[in-house]
Every structure is written in structure tokens, then in C-alpha cells.
Amino acid sequence: MGLDERLLPLRGCLNKRKEKDMALKKELLEILACPKCVRDPECTGELEYREKEEQLICHHCRLVYHVKDDIPVMLIDEASPLT
Ligand SMILES: [Zn+2]
């Protein structure tokens, strides 16, 4: 019984880590910025994340960045124009 009690917090910790790896991290989204707009002092380069479409949208320069295997492709050359 004493052993089970000690294992419980460990199991919870592992589950939490698994969840974190599966979804695109919120912390990551907060630091992501449009590589084109981030150079513009007038613009924050803030992106809108569309989870269903797996897209990151910059409304400032109207570019759509794609998310491949939960990894955002932050390349202007790889982005598509927002339609
Ligand atoms: Zn932009």
C-alpha cells in the first residue's frame, strides 16, 4: 500500500507530459510571431491559431502558415496567401 501511494504522483506526472506533447503548446503559440511582420515595429506579428485547419494566420500581411506534425512551419516561402 505504501508503494502505491508513492507511485500515484509519478503516474500523474507522466500523463500530464503526454498530453502536453500531443497538442501544440500554448506557450509555444505565445512566442510565435509572423517572421515577416516581426521586423515591422508597428506590428506585433501576432498569429491566430486555427486548430482544426492546422493553420497559423497572420492578418497583418495576410499569410497562412501551416502546422505539420504539430510543428509550425514559420517560413515565408512555405506560407500561403490568405483567401
Ligand atoms: Zn505577417
Structure description:
By secondary structure, the chain is of the alpha+beta class. The chain has a domain of 58 residues: N-terminal domain of TfIIb, CATH 2.20.25. The chain has two helices and five strands; from the N terminus they run H-H-E-E-E-E-E. Strands 1, 2, 3, 4 and 5 form a five-stranded antiparallel sheet that branches. A hairpin with a 2-residue loop joins strand 3 and strand 4. The longest helix has 21 residues. The model has no long low-confidence stretch (mean pLDDT 81). Zinc ion (ZN) binds next to loops.
Write the layout of secondary structure elements.
Layout: H1 2-22, H2 26-31, E1 48-50, E2 55-58, E3 63-68, E4 71-72, E5 80-81
Antiparallel strand pairs: 1-2, 2-3, 3-4, 3-5
Strand % is: 15-25%
What is the subunit arrangement here?
Answer: single chain
- State the total count of DSSP E strands: 5
What is the C-level CATH assignment of the domain at 24-81? Mainly Beta
Flag low-confidence runs: none
Distance from first to last alpha carbon? 60 Å
Secondary-structure element sequence?
HHEEEEE
Tell me the helix content: 25-40%
How many helical elements? 2
What features would you highlight for this structure?
binds zinc ion, N-terminal domain of TfIIb, alpha+beta, 5-stranded antiparallel β-sheet
Compact overview of the structure:
The chain is of the alpha+beta class.
